[in-house]
Amino acid sequence: MRREAIAPCGMNCALCAVYQREKKNCPGCRADGAGKPGHCRNCAIKSCAMERTEGGRCEACPDFPCERVKRLDRRYQKQYNVSLLENLRTVQTEGMDAFLQKEGARWTCYACGERLCVHENTCPSCGRERK
Ligand code: SF4
Ligand code: SF4
Ligand SMILES: [Zn+2]
Prior knowledge:
The protein is mostly helical. The protein has helices at 17-20, 38-41, 44-52, 67-80, 84-94, 96-106. The chain is 40% helix and 0% strand.
C-alpha cells in the first residue's frame, strides 16, 4: 500500500476497480492519466483540500469532517461497507504508516493473497467472497 494512493477524502485508490483494471486504468486521485473518470478529475473535495491544507489532506483541515466529506462517507458506507471517515480518523490518530499497514492486512484475500477491491464483494483474482 502506498501513501500516494490515499485520496484527500480517505478513499484508498489502490482498492478502486478503475485503478485495478488492466486497460485505461486510473492512476489514482493524486495523479493524472487518461483513465481517470470525469467525476474524480473534477472533484470538489480534492480541490478544496489542495487549497486548504498542506499536502491535500482532509483530516488536516480545521473543518474536518465537513458535510461534503460526510456525505461521500455515507455513500461509501451504504454501497460498499467502507468508511472513508474512519480511514481518515485512523490516519489522524495512528499515523499514515499504521493506517497503510492495517489496509494491507484488511484488503488481502485470505484465499489467494492478492489485493481485494472495495467495489467488489468477491476477490478480483480468485473469486472468493470478501470476508
Ligand atoms: S477513479 Fe477516482 S477513486 Fe478510483 S482510483 Fe481514480 S481517482 Fe481514485
Ligand atoms: S472543508 Fe476541509 S474537510 Fe471539507 S472538503 Fe475541504 S479540506 Fe476537506
Ligand atoms: Zn483471492
